[in-house]
Amino acid sequence: MTKRLRIPVLTTLLAGTMLLPMIHPNSATAAESPFAVDMKSMEIDGHNIAYREAGDPSKPTVLLLHGFPTSSHMFRDLIPVLAEDYHVIAPDYLGYGASDMPSAESYDYSFANAAETVTRLIDAKGVDTYSVYLMDYGAPVGYRMFAEHPERVTGFVIQNGNAYDEGLREFWDPIKAYWADPSTENGDALRGFLTLDATKWQFTHGVGDVSTVSPDNYWHVQYLLDRPGNQEVQLEMFLDYGTNVAEYPKWQALFQEHQPPALIVWGKNDHIFPADGAHPYKADLTDVEFHLLDTGHFALEEYGDVIAAEMQEFLARVTQ
């Protein structure tokens, strides 16, 4: 079952436990635009998976995979730009955004399950091939999908999405300690990453002009992180990230074998996924457009126009 709500402005108000749309006064007119964005949900294994969709489904599909701790909201400005020429889908993983959040006790939060859920979503949408934007958590989700069906991927847009040991520096030390010993003590040591100060830091650290970053980003993200039980969800994902590292050699071998074209647009001031993790792609992939941007983790906030322009040129080439 698919639920639809067409809105021209990708802004939401979070009130209590309900996600309420902010409707623009000219919504009736804007809804007629072919580039308006549908807010939808699909039931998969008894859980509602929220996603944003725009553009003509007969055109090539671009899949947008978000990072931690955000959702498809991070693509709110990019989607209408791409929708002029492409069919765009941007899902929220379970536990994020407007998707359901089953308890950590009742659901196995893992990157493998997230990849399977997104695959089932695009299968249900009739998508056979796609280009994919990978950011942060979106990288292991997308690379797991690629590993299962490399023939479906026409190109990667990689934005601060890691697949190499070189990209896991000192920031990851407390998380690596949790992988080595998933004790309550080591898990509790990571709860500081789930506070408002940490969330705001993720959006603003390394940014040249902080005024380009809307505070709506960290306010609404923190609301979702503060839901009862969500910290346990995030701790499960922190722990499971270690399984991605074990997959890195496999993904690298698949890069070398299948040689998907790649556009790398990387915020070079990112302390979480530094540029050390961007350069190794060039050793495994031969068709790489490589750009280091003078910004931080969420590069779309400050360099959205630049990334959109690079994507349009890249996608025009790889989706022919």
Task: Please tell me about this protein's structure.
The protein is an alpha/beta fold and 320 residues long. The protein has a single domain (2-318), classed as 3-Layer(aba) Sandwich (Rossmann fold), CATH 3.40.50. It is 37% helix and 20% strand. The chain is built from 11 helices and 11 strands. The chain has helices at 27-30, 78-82, 111-124, 138-148, 173-180, 184-188, 196-204, 216-225, 230-258, 281-284, 299-318, and strands at 2-7, 12-15, 18-21, 37-44, 47-54, 61-65, 87-91, 130-135, 153-159, 262-267, 288-293. The strands form 2 sheets. Strands 1-4-5-7-6-8-9-10-11 form a 9-stranded mixed beta sheet, with helices on both faces. Strands 2-3 form a two-stranded antiparallel ribbon. Strand 8 (130-135), helix 4 and strand 9 (153-159) form a beta-alpha-beta unit. Helix 7 (196-204) runs antiparallel to helix 8. The longest helix has 29 residues, at 230-258. It starts with a strand and ends with a helix. Residues 1-33 have low confidence and may be disordered.
Supply database-style keywords.
single chain; 320 residues; alpha/beta; Rossmann fold; two-stranded antiparallel sheet; 11 helices; 11 strands; globular; disordered N terminus
Compose a concise summary of this entry.
The chain is an alpha/beta fold and 320 residues long. Helices cover 37% and strands 20% of the residues.
Radius of gyration: 18 Å
How many helical elements? 11
Q: How do the strands line up in the largest sheet?
A: 1-4-5-7-6-8-9-10-11
Note the main sheet: 9 strands, mixed
- Helix/strand structural class: alpha/beta
Could you name the CATH topology? Answer: Rossmann fold
The helix/strand series, from N terminus to C terminus, equals EEEHEEEHEHEHEHHHHHEHEH
